[in-house]
Hints:
This protein is mainly α. The chain has 2 domains: 6-186 and 291-321, 3-Layer(aba) Sandwich (Rossmann fold); 208-279, Tyrosyl-Transfer RNA Synthetase (Orthogonal Bundle). Helices cover 51% and strands 7% of the residues. The chain has 14 helices and 5 strands. The chain has helices spanning 19-32, 44-47, 58-70, 88-97, 102-106, 109-117, 124-139, 152-168, 210-218, 239-247, 251-259, 265-279, 281-288, 292-321, and strands at residues 6-11, 37-42, 78-82, 144-146, 177-179. The strands form 2 sheets. The chain has a 3-stranded parallel β-sheet with strand order 1-2-3, with helices on both faces. The chain has a two-stranded parallel ribbon with strand order 4-5. Helix 8 links the parallel strand 4 (144-146) and strand 5 (177-179). The two termini are 28 Å apart. The structure holds tryptophan. The site of tryptophan has 14 residues, from strand 1 and helix 7. Tryptophan (TRP) is lined by residues 8-12, 43, 46, 133, 136-137, 145, 147, 151, 154.
Amino acid sequence: MTGRKRSLSGIRVTGRFHIGNYLGAGVNYVRLQDDYESYIFVADYHTLTTKPNAREFTDDLYEMVMDLIAIGVDPDRTVIYRQSSIPMVAELTLLLAMVTPLSWVQRVPTFKDKVREQPDNVNLGLFEYPVLQSADIIIVKGDVVPVGRDQAPHLELTREITRRFNRIYRPVFPEPQIVLNPEAPIIKGTDGKTKMSKSLNNIIGVTDAPEVIRKQVMSMVTDTKRIYKTQPGHPRTCNVCAFYKLFFDDWEHYWDLCRKAQIGCQDKKKLLAERIIERFAPFRERRAGLTRERIDAVLKAGAERAQDVAGHTMVEVRDAIGLPPYSRA
Ligand code: TRP
């Protein structure tokens, strides 16, 4: 091992990588691999909490790994794997559950959200979700965890569980730190209502074909108070203008034109679409060169590395708890 600190993150299988994923956490996946020993996995166990048949999301899983590589996650510098390739993480989840007070998990807001979203499938896995996430992180002894802001409650819980484990047994794990992107945008999906989410069909994918990006951008909800282009716009409350802040160095110039009614919403969207297409061209190119065979090879190599690390951790964990080692079970 290299002695460098470790970075780890996971992503649920939702489909293509979109601008929200990229600016929220993706940028940091790429940045951190320079200085950290990096791990990124596709959280297929977690995905089962909402989609019980893994075969139905396998294609999406491959798409996501391709997108990860496309945005610059380099399989030579980041260990990329499928969560379920490390079944030991399930054992660690069970062991962590024994030292996790029920009340801590009951507080987690994402569980309440899911109950609202899928009242017909309120399974125990949803409840245990953040404990599994804690196991993911500490099984590789992650020091830093690049994620989007929505994951803060999970990371807080992970830290609490880690402290408790270390106190009850012995200090086996580092306390992982959340890493957010300070420039993480306050942009919303194309509907202008909520953050980007595949299920709301309001995303702009980072490796989408130019015509798809154009279509998505042109469908964006703009300044609802501006009906005619002769009326002055309100850039502060317009989602398209929020995108300008991220994609144009001279965004202030465009905000100004908008305020003075010298540019219309349609024209603003057209310019924005072309800018997004240009900015993500390198991602599309890298992505075009990837095959399923290549992804299989990446995931296989990643699984071996991650199993190795997780195996070492579990030897320590079982010993700390006082359980016999695997070999003499
Ligand atoms: N819960 C994360 C999400 O929804 C995915 C995830 C699972 C994760 N395990 C993780 C993120 C471990 C960071 C570390 O996006």
